[in-house]
């Protein structure tokens, strides 16, 4: 990979690639990603999990949500609040409203949770590398919310084509502990030690 490609270039390139996926591909790959994620002990033993509502062909988390709720696990979704994120409890996806940037998010109802109270958080991204670095939309919302959170509780989910060997990273960028794709699990901590 060309080290000179900027985050902005990578973001643009991979959004275009993701937007080319068909509905059938998104559903098939999302179900496979869910299968791999649901094998994770951290998730199986969790009581409080942060999710996101997908936009623009992101991995569909509805399957994950349905499983978690069937197991009595409390689910939280991000809401843009001032210049950051807050996660609020969501009991049914019908509670989500069109929020900032046209993305479905919880309204002001539901309990907000601090990141230290989450057992696990599932994070979207546009591009990830095998060391757990992530490129999002460039607003820094997730990096800020995840600061101080242990990496092993942070799971990125993406399609395999969104995984590259290395991306530019800055000191404030928060790394994922693990990334799940339709091809399996990447343990980022182990990759960093290689």
What's the topology here?
Elements lengths: L6 H13 L3 H15 L3 H4 L3 E3 L11 H9 L3 E8 L2 E6 L6 E3 L5 E3 L5 E2 L6 E4 L3 E3 L4 E2 L5 H6 L7 E4 L5 E2 L13 E4 L2 E4 H6 L1
Parallel strand pairs: 1-2, 1-7, 7-10, 8-11, 10-12
Antiparallel strand pairs: 2-3, 3-6, 4-5, 8-9, 12-13
Explained architecture:
It is a single chain. This protein has 194 residues and is of the alpha/beta class. The chain has one domain (7-193): 3-Layer(aba) Sandwich (Rossmann fold), CATH 3.40.50.10420. It contains 6 helices and 13 strands. It has helices at residues 7-19, 23-37, 41-44, 62-70, 141-146, 188-193, and strands at 48-50, 74-81, 84-89, 96-98, 104-106, 112-113, 120-123, 127-129, 134-135, 154-157, 163-164, 178-181, 184-187. The strands form 3 sheets. An 8-stranded mixed β-sheet has the order 6-3-2-1-7-10-12-13. Strand 12 (178-181) and strand 13 (184-187) form a beta hairpin. The radius of gyration is 16 Å and the shape is globular. The two termini are 18 Å apart. The relative contact order is 0.18.
